[in-house]
Amino acid sequence: MTTPDSKVVLDTRGLRCPEPVMMLHRQIRKVEVGEVILVLATDPATQRDIPQFCEFLPHLLLAQANDQGEFQYWIQKGARD
Asked: Where do the structural domains in the chain lie, given as residue ranges?
């Protein structure tokens, strides 16, 4: 799988819901529109929570992967209307 380039890596491994999404929310405010954040997580709940976060705000979930229980999400910051 080809993955998008990301300047920012947010490591939430070992944290449980709701911490990964809360950390993503804080981090995404710090980057420019169009920049990509790679989120690393081990909480299976992120498989539901992060796509919903992206849809609701709206940001673009470019790709996601599961590598033996480590979840990876590439999220591009969207512009708010």
From this structure: 8-76
